[in-house]
Backbone:
């Protein structure tokens, strides 16, 4: 099983689309609200090269947007 993490914000429309995409395919994932977790926000900025959401981490492979 893959380890999937979605870095998102609750009011982001693209985040909602990614969330629904993952759910519709039965993918289990952890979701982190980057506004509530400063460490996760920093990690997401490193992954994305800036404060961009959504960011999806699948076993260390990172996809932005």
Residues:
């Amino acid at each position: 099983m893959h380890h999937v993490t979605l870095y998102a914000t609750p009011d982001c429309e693209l985040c909602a689309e990614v969330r629904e995409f993952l759910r519709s395919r039965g993918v289990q994932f952890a979701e982190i609200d980057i506004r509530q977790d400063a460490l996760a926000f920093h990690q997401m900025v490193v992954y994305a090269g800036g404060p961009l959401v959504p960011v999806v981490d699948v076993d260390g492979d990172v996809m932005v947007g």
Residues 3 and 29 are 7 Å apart (CA to CA). Residues 13-24 form the longest helix (12 residues).
